[in-house]
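Hi V.,

Quick status before I head out on leave. The structure for the redesign project is tokenized and pasted below; the design run finished overnight.
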């Protein structure tokens, strides 16, 4: 009888631990939708200086965006940002952006495609100070390859 009670208690404890783990799993938070515009709209892969992105949030205040979390295509961090009217204006290092585009989008496994002009889809991501995540709608950026 004692072995049976011990087995039942162990089974019940295991079930409780599994239930607690399931309850502790993070829920998928809603991603805030953003609209962006990137200047220059046509990017030469020899571009130097800075690339500017304008960010509008739908239903949220752009003052709540933590600029240090803003990323070009989820990869390149913003250098700086400021609020202008109802949008956040962020700057990215053009050399980092063009290097990223060249290595991840244009030159594939050492092969350079024959065409000189492309259109690629870019997103901008980031977090609000509240921890909520935002992601832009895909933005078509024209690329000129040297």
């Amino acid at each position: 009888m004692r072995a049976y009670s011990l087995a039942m208690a162990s089974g019940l404890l295991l079930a409780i631990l599994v239930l607690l783990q399931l309850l502790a799993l993070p829920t998928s938070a809603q991603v805030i939708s953003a609209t962006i515009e990137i200047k220059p709209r046509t990017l030469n892969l020899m571009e130097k200086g800075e690339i500017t992105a304008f960010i509008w949030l739908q239903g949220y205040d752009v003052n709540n965006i933590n600029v240090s979390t803003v990323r070009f295509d989820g990869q390149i961090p913003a250098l700086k940002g400021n609020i202008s009217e109802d949008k956040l204006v962020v700057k990215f290092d053009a050399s980092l952006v063009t290097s990223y585009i060249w290595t991840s989008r244009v030159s594939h496994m050492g092969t350079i495609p024959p065409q000189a002009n492309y259109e690629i889809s870019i997103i901008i991501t980031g977090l609000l100070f509240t921890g909520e995540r935002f992601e832009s709608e895909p933005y078509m950026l024209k690329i000129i390859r040297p």
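Above is the designed sequence. The two ends are 81 Å apart (CA to CA).

G. will cover questions while I'm gone.

Best,
W.
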